[in-house]
Amino acid sequence: MFYQSVINADMSQNDAMHKDDLEKSGEALIEFIESSKAESILRGAREKLQEFFDHHVLTKKTTTELLNDLVHAEEVVGQKLLDLEQLKSQMAQEVERMEQEVQRSLSKSQILDSEQEFLLKELERLRDTEQEIQTLQQEVDEDTTEVIPSAIYIAQLYYKVTKIKLEVDTEPHILRGVHYGMDVATPINIDTSTRSACEISDDLWSLVTTEW
């Protein structure tokens, strides 16, 4: 019992000493913290951290705005490209339409030129024929010494107009001659005693071309 009491007393004394040492150490630590620059350093670190966070938020906001502006610019450029493609397509169609119109106009012009050339040639031919008829008429009117039989004169005049050359020395009821077409000569041999005058006239005029 005695030894136990001594041991207990000694342990109690040691506990008291440790407690006293801890209290002194805590007070010394608190005094050191209060007297040192730790709080100032911690405050500075918090301020730096806040500045970094604010800068991060601002950078993120600016980046987001730039991305939004970039997306909007891409949309605007894309729409302009679509509009340009549509305008290009419309212009290509208009150019093609104008080319077709020009081609049709050229074709019409060529046709008109050909028709005009043909008509001018026909007009010149008719003028020559008219001049020949007038010359023939003057020869008949002025030549008092030579009388051309009326049948021959009519035959010559008829040939100028119809290109049909009739013989004048045939039998009374036979109409004989040749039609000189553009490509072929067609003989004529009609018995007038078996045909009416209208039928004979129709047959002869059917040989005359109507193309001018």
From TrEMBL:
UniProt-listed InterPro entries: Ndc80_Spc24
Compartment(s) of residence: Nucleus; Chromosome, Centromere, Kinetochore
GO biological process, one term: chromosome segregation
GO molecular function: microtubule binding
Keywords: Cell cycle, Cell division, Centromere, Chromosome, Coiled coil, Kinetochore, Mitosis, Nucleus
Coiled coil: 81-146
Main location: nucleus
Family: Belongs to the SPC24 family.
Biological role stated in the UniProt entry: Acts as a component of the essential kinetochore-associated NDC80 complex, which is required for chromosome segregation and spindle checkpoint activity. Required for kinetochore integrity and the organization of stable microtubule binding sites in the outer plate of the kinetochore. The NDC80 complex synergistically enhances the affinity of the SKA1 complex for microtubules and may allow the NDC80 complex to track depolymerizing microtubules.
PANTHER family to which the protein is assigned, alphabetical: KINETOCHORE PROTEIN SPC24 (PTHR22142:SF2), PTHR22142
Assembly description: Component of the NDC80 complex.
Protein name, entry field: Kinetochore protein Spc24
Organism: Cyprinus carpio carpio
Lineage of source species: Eukaryota, Metazoa, Chordata, Craniata, Vertebrata
